């Protein structure tokens, strides 16, 4: 119903809904492929994967693959399984990420690790990764396999780099941006690039879509890190303050630490570095972020990346689909979920 309304271009619909509307048939096929291919004779696999899949998700990455394939001159047959592979990679990283982050809420429901336990979440995540590779091999393009398998390796590197930087209040903005590029932007870039390559598009467009995806992913994750301190929990579908409790050094915190006085620095050291978080500390952290305008400034950085994403689309013909992709960059920095 939502996709149909979006196809009509109903006013008030956001750019992501419009994109889903333009690609409604392909997206329905992707969702059907996801359900079909998460099947396994081991019942816990479809149970756990189905639990997460049924809880929704924006399907932003597979939409990038579908859109890029259309822009490259081909829809449907090849793009659909590749887009499903992209969402499987994303879903696998979420399962693993929620274990690592000890998150208890995902897509508005208790996370899979809460419901099924850490062991099952990690193992089913592994299954989904493997399934994604099967789908890519079935596609048969070594080039596409190369793009997406590199992204899968880079995501893991990003999560490990983040783990290494956690609880270190001296983490630089450069390290933070490298984490974001690896754990999030790389898959956005690969999702878009793979769709275009599968459609047989040329080199200039390939570079354009990869650059678009990379900047979009940077913007998306920086906003995610802002929302971790500022969103409405019910709307976000994830717990507020996860990053703080986990001692994650994200951009808002980096900016606030740099601007804080000695007493504030001791607060960040106790909470983020030593992990001694008491009742009221999250509220104080949010207060300090506000005092130093750290959330606004982080959002402003995200808007710069969104502008880069739009600019990257310049070599592509200005079709309604390309225009919607440009609008999706705005959605990523104005989103509340
Ligand atoms: C969550 O991604 C992980 C991040 C990169 C922040 P999404 O916000 O796209 O997750 P879903 O798929 O819509 O739930
Ligand atoms: C998201 O990291 C990136 C991956 C899942 C690889 P986060 O930990 O910031 O994302 P959320 O907040 O759990 O969705
Ligand atoms: Mg997380
Ligand atoms: Mg987060």
SSE run: HHHHHHEEHHHHHHHHHHHH
* General form: globular
First-residue to last-residue Cα separation:
20 Å
Low-confidence stretches: 1-8
Question: Measured on Cα atoms, how large is the radius of gyration?
Answer: 20 Å
Largest sheet: 2 strands, antiparallel
Summarize the structure.
The protein is mainly alpha-helical. Helices cover 75% and strands 1% of the residues.
Q: What's the structural blueprint in terms of helices and strands?
A:
Layout: H1 2-7, H2 15-22, H3 24-37, H4 44-54, H5 60-71, H6 79-100, E1 105-106, E2 109-110, H7 112-116, H8 118-139, H9 142-165, H10 173-198, H11 203-230, H12 233-236, H13 242-245, H14 251-259, H15 262-273, H16 281-291, H17 294-312, H18 320-334
Helix pairs in contact: 2-18, 3-6, 4-8, 5-6, 5-10, 6-8, 6-9, 6-10, 8-9, 9-10, 10-11, 11-17, 11-18, 14-17, 17-18
The chain binds 3-methylbut-3-enyl trihydrogen diphosphate (2 copies) and magnesium ion (2 copies).
Task: Looking at this protein, list some descriptive labels.
binds 3-methylbut-3-enyl trihydrogen diphosphate; globular; 337 residues; 75% helix; binds magnesium ion; mainly alpha; two-stranded antiparallel sheet
Could you explain how this protein is built, in words?
The chain is an all-alpha fold. Helix content is 75%, strand content 1%. The chain is built from 18 helices and two strands. Strands 1-2 form a two-stranded antiparallel ribbon. A hairpin with a 2-residue loop joins strand 1 and strand 2 (109-110). Helix 3 (24-37) crosses helix 6 (79-100), helix 5 (60-71) runs antiparallel to helix 6 (79-100) and helix 10 crosses helix 11. The radius of gyration is 20 Å and the shape is globular. Bound molecules: 3-methylbut-3-enyl trihydrogen diphosphate (2 copies) and magnesium ion (2 copies). One magnesium ion binds at residues 224-225, 228, 243.
